[in-house]
Amino acid sequence: MLLPNCRGVFGLLLSLLLASTPVLAIWPAPSSISTGESTLWIGSGLSVTYNGKILPWTFGYEPKGSKFSSSEIVKGGVARAMKSIVQTNFVPWMLYNRMELETTEPSLLKYKTYITHLDITQSGTDTSKTFKPLAGEVDESYTLNVDKSGKASIKAVSSTGVLRALESFSQLFFQHSKGPFFYTKSAPVSITDKPEYDHRGVLFDVSRSFFPVDSILRTIDAMAYNKMNRIHIHATDSQSWPLEIPALPELHQKGAYAQGKSYSPADLAKIQQYAINRGIQPIIEIDTPGHFGIAALSHPEIVAGWDSAPWSAYCAEPPCGQIRLNEPRVDPFLDKLMNDILPRVSPYSAYFHTGGDEVNFNMYNLDPTVGTNDSAVIVPLLQKFIDKHHARVRKAGLVPMVWEEIPADYNVTIGKDVVIQSWLGDEAIASLTAKGHKVISSNYNYWYLDCGRGQWLNFGQAEFDTFYPFPDWCSPYKNWRLIYSYNPRANLTAEQAKLVLGGELAAWSESIDDATIDDILWPRASAAGEVLWSSPEGRTQLEASTRLAEFRERLIARGIKSGTVHMPYCTQGSNSTACQYL
Amino acid sequence: MLLPNCRGVFGLLLSLLLASTPVLAIWPAPSSISTGESTLWIGSGLSVTYNGKILPWTFGYEPKGSKFSSSEIVKGGVARAMKSIVQTNFVPWMLYNRMELETTEPSLLKYKTYITHLDITQSGTDTSKTFKPLAGEVDESYTLNVDKSGKASIKAVSSTGVLRALESFSQLFFQHSKGPFFYTKSAPVSITDKPEYDHRGVLFDVSRSFFPVDSILRTIDAMAYNKMNRIHIHATDSQSWPLEIPALPELHQKGAYAQGKSYSPADLAKIQQYAINRGIQPIIEIDTPGHFGIAALSHPEIVAGWDSAPWSAYCAEPPCGQIRLNEPRVDPFLDKLMNDILPRVSPYSAYFHTGGDEVNFNMYNLDPTVGTNDSAVIVPLLQKFIDKHHARVRKAGLVPMVWEEIPADYNVTIGKDVVIQSWLGDEAIASLTAKGHKVISSNYNYWYLDCGRGQWLNFGQAEFDTFYPFPDWCSPYKNWRLIYSYNPRANLTAEQAKLVLGGELAAWSESIDDATIDDILWPRASAAGEVLWSSPEGRTQLEASTRLAEFRERLIARGIKSGTVHMPYCTQGSNSTACQYL
């Protein structure tokens, strides 16, 4: 059967056709896919070639170091795909008709045709840009073919494309209920694929809550399963400074939550390398000039209004604190900070995020170097601040990113190179792109994953009735269906649409930590992952739900504690359309 | 310092006084507690006596079998408390001031006074009622004293009270950052405690999603940490029949989600015994006559309207199916069913829940034995059904429970022995108790934990705009503050209030399974746990948040993947009131 790019018309029909057997549910949906009905088996004896040479892969292989080589990256990708296939796969009882798994999965007693070879051909040559591309600088497209005789092949322009292909390959197979046997019932398979957006990210806030390195690495893995390619690490905020800056060690020594709750240079490098080996670019953010309060514990001379009360008069959440805007000691501090961190970022990323959200002008009443909330005074100072700060970023060979308030709300002029992260919605994106700015969207109405679970603040008796029943500012909770309905390029001209490079799911961590981050992110970030990877043509909630439910089981099998898409009643074979509102 | 029953006035003051050190945060709050400022240590060498005799406990001890003995139960309780103290404890860095853990936790180099003995005295004698009490039949009160010299003692009337005391005891201690050393800084400790409500439960829906036995056992443990005492297992529903009934084996053979996704008699007994050993009564529900569709796969002759379409015309969610109301084959079927399950329930419970929610009268148009939706026809049939069905329950020595629609919406007369589970809110409770009925509350506006995360149904293009942005019927999400604000006895006369036996948190599992059940239940069910255990006098959100945040860390340490209460910024020492809206 054929699942063309324009799937909408066929979606429901296909769901019905496929009703009695697990759908071949590649997530996110490829540009085109055709499948058959032959069974093929696969095992850990798979021989892999890369550009005609044997690629000797082993389980658990992880490339080391900061020099990235195409063949090492591909070798790691093969190792992970094979781990997904033969070590962390799942028996799809929840995808077959009730009680029909045993009678409809392929017989172990018949002659088995195995996939014995996977030939990988990379037509282009990776450059250093491949491993830290600006949006559009790497070609992630690929083709994947598995013929009936068990010959599998991947073709891609870049090693990143090969990684995407290997991920799709890993999603072809299920585990047999009778033991460690792995099969697809859908051969031959032919996939042609490429991403819709260049920037497909998750914002991971390691400041409000501290996350162990392993938590970040696990999330990078899950992102790779979704073919996402940017992990934005919101590394510092007013609540804590977990990022070790060896030139300014007192920042984390006084500002981390506790001893050991910080990221050493080795930790940071490990995270960055781990991400790049999975085709994901790490983007580090040190938010300025707002969201900077905690630095007051070690450098009070550069911070205005630290922990000022009542906090709601001066900042969006406690504790308050912004960088002083007219204080001569700020530039030497920022020079030192950036001279330390930027050389540790530039080997791994094309970008550095300078923050810029929620700068509170009232706070500058408390800044002894400003002493007013008058924007006529503040904006020129802010302009100077941004100019100098972005110059630091550019000097290190990096492109600055900012939150949208900097250009949109504060009227600060920024370079056309800058990528703006918008969170305030469609109008903001329309306005920014109309001015020719490059934008990524984290529209809070759709893609703020922390929303809708109620206030994280406490309320005394005086405020109790006003805030009851304690919804948070960005309620409701963003169900995956809502997330999936979002089109970052909606209602834009073709010219403007091109400037929307992609988007990021935001997981602000006032009320999230390692215990529940998986449930917060998945499968909801997967829904956005498909919006960002797959063509919007013909995608529907109904068609997606079946595939997403299957993909969710892969996430669980791979150790990601994703929330559900559906109860098994809705995922089982002939019920694939039963859980529709009718 | 003294934390009397009437804490309200002192709550904020206390929080401030305790600001620089972890609060002695027993959760749920005891009736009264006084603490000092001496440090005591504890280790696995603790000697325990029970009624004057040495109690030889060992880690991991679990009483076996269906004959419950007080000393065995206490031995298991001691083993678990000691595991919590010395094996699954935590270093409370998130409760001390930032970076002050190492300087303010007790020194390992000074002379250590150890708690070497714990003397447990049970003044009453347990009876068989102790292990399967009706509401009010077991005295759960206790006192706990730890003097400065390290002598600890527990006094209680029942072994259940001893278990509650051991739980409080286990919450006195923290782990030292330098290794496996365990201390309290708050000796002497004196606690007097008893529950506010007799029925403190969680409804666990194992039908919509299948949960492994371990998942249920883990939840029972977490409930015990919260001094909860009823686990209501919603064992069957229209989506699946996971409960094995040996007399009617085709029910699970055809109705479970898959082979192996069912509870054998041994599984059920294991769950029941595990619960009772933790002072928790298991209550089994087989929902009738609605929510019964799945039985049609094996017994179509007793089911009306199985999987009828469009489902929304005939039931609350797919697939539809109700027991036929005037079909002679129903009684023999139910006799067989109940003769099988009730003798497996009665050794462990005083109750059996017969369901009764969401009976859809339109469905009886599809019932060949009724053929109308006329309540004048249906109600007398329903009355007959309930009379016969409750007679079966009573004959087995059990008290029936029902959902409130049976008496409230369908005007069916039920016995005064029956406990009614209300979910529709305060008015329903007022009306039922006014008629003299015993009630437990699962008010969906507060205590439905699955709510507010959006629809679990899919929407086609025709319904898309109508249901966008896809909120579920019981939005918003029930934040712990909202849950905590609920008073099941609000606005009732004293006479009516006495009839409110307690309540249950409901975790309906259309969109929950084992991967995320912990995050759904905790810490939110803990908030209700305190409502049900602790006196409402003087409880405030502000005071509770500090203790709940600490208790949440105990849950995490004990392997329960609870959601957060606060980011560490809000839980650290002097910030205990910083995250208030001001």
Automatic annotation (TrEMBL), chains A, B:
Keyword Hydrolase: yes
Entry similarity comment: Belongs to the glycosyl hydrolase 20 family.
Keywords: Glycoprotein, Glycosidase, Hydrolase, Signal
Superkingdom, taxonomy of origin: Eukaryota
One GO CC annotation: membrane
Catalyzed reaction equations: Hydrolysis of terminal non-reducing N-acetyl-D-hexosamine residues in N-acetyl-beta-D-hexosaminides
Active site (catalytic residues): 358
GO molecular function: beta-N-acetylglucosaminidase activity
Name of protein: Beta-hexosaminidase
